[in-house]
Amino acid sequence: MLRFALLICAVAAVGPAAVAASLEGTYIYGGKESVTIKIARGEKEGEFAGIAVGAKSDWHRKQLNQAVLEIKRVGENDYRGRCSAYHIQLSKDMAAWIEVAKAELLDDGSLRCRLKIPDEGSVEILYRRVVTNAQGLPPGSSTSATAPEPEPPAEADEGDLTGLWRAPNGDVTRYEANAKEYVGYVARLSPQKEGFGFRIGEECIRLTRKTRDAYVGTVKVKSEGGRETRWEDIELTATRNTLRYTRHKNDGGQEKGAAVRVRTVEERPPEPKSQKEGQQ
To answer: I want to staple 258 with a disulfide (CB 3.0 to 4.6 A). Which of 7, 11, 73, 265 is the partner?
Structure first.
């Protein structure tokens, strides 16, 4: 059966509040074509996310306002998690991640991360802490006047689903809201989803918002080739740029996954509504 959507499921860890406070801030990674990230606490204690808020190259601008580093505290000054492989130019796939085997704060406030590269050992990268201006970017940065704000406007309501969300396999779902009701449409297809008969613009999930960040509803599931279609229950939570879901299969099993918010999708426009449902 088709598996719906996708990002990072960080595990909570507990540690001194002073260490957490010292980790939050703005950092620069790289040299001439540097990236500025803002590290902030996650929803759970011990979780942190680094969001790209400034960039000096076209390569890195594609990730503005996206999470490029996700770590959790496992010791007083010991963090583990993952880093975007695209962010460090190890992959052209913005959905690819690599393991952060260890991260620690140095005496000067910078963050050192040891990355585990598959089949190649490990490498260390350094995020240099900087003093920021009101926009959350380094003073004098050439991107200060043109880069987007550190947080997208929609984050005033951090649990709102409206917009585009991408799964690790490349599926992109577009959510539209009407009061507390949310409907998701296929915005981009992975080869896997194409094999199950889904189409661009097709309605694939229906949700009702229950709390600030929690949703319940049903998700469309198809058999191979799209010969059979059914709807299964799903629970979903959304916080800032990450959503997580649990799909309750009709056979009693469960599927868990996550997705990341994206700003654009290179895909043909949705089909007219008259062509969506009713052509199964």
So the answer is: 7
